[in-house]
Design goal:
213 residues, mainly alpha
């Protein structure tokens, strides 16, 4: 069976798995921090660091912006790579002071320009930039994370991150335009839920409901 579009893939995943309920956070500030903290670690370790930052600031934008890098570094030790991540979080919080979420999530804000700005910040790579666009700045983009790449290696020829991004940005900004913001966010969650169950460890893809696609 052939899947002809990203939207069709999403519909197959949704029908089999139900809504993903992704991302686990109560505010954009928490998502923003979590996206940096979870790099190169598991979510449990990132959650310890998030809890420390929550105790310090309650995720208040004003209190977060007042943190110095040393304070951030001590708070986020459980997530590992804390020197590098503390610099990234510090720069990201300084950058956000120039803007506000209402402007950055406005319909006329071009996501390519915003993505380039995010990529210019320390510690923000392509995947993290796309996660922030999708969950913080309300842009319905495709996130080509590890599970997405593993899935597409089963469904389509092996290729690189930029080429996967081309798949979901050129050929299909048209395709992603078929997604509402909520669907685009859920799509990322669907792929990660599928990946955790069928693509991790021993790789059981050929036992999964997508094996004939």
């Amino acid at each position: 069976m052939i899947i002809k579009s990203l939207k069709q893939l999403y519909e197959v995943l949704l029908a089999e798995q139900g809504p993903s309920g992704w991302w686990p956070a109560d505010s954009k500030e928490e998502i923003l921090l979590g996206a940096v903290l979870v790099q190169n670690t598991n979510w449990q370790n990132a959650a310890y660091s998030l809890e420390n930052l929550k105790q310090l600031t309650a995720f208040s934008p004003t209190k977060l912006a007042s943190l110095d890098q040393d304070t951030i570094m001590e708070a986020i030790r459980p997530s590992g790579f804390y020197r590098n991540k503390s610099r990234g979080i510090y720069e990201l919080l300084r950058w956000l002071q120039k803007w506000n979420f209402e402007y950055l999530t406005a319909a006329d804000t071009l996501n390519n320009e915003l993505r380039d700005e995010l990529l210019s910040l320390h510690g923000i790579g392509q995947e993290t930039a796309d996660v922030l666009l999708l969950y913080v700045f309300d842009q319905p983009v495709f996130v080509s994370d590890t599970y997405a790449r593993r899935l597409f290696e089963k469904l389509a020829p092996r290729t690189s991150y930029p080429t996967y991004q081309s798949l979901a940005r050129k050929l299909p900004q048209a395709q992603m335009a078929a997604f509402s913001l909520a669907e685009a966010q859920d799509f990322h969650g669907q792929i990660d839920e599928f990946g955790k169950l069928w693509l991790r460890g021993g790789d059981r893809f050929f036992d999964s409901f997508l094996k004939d696609f």
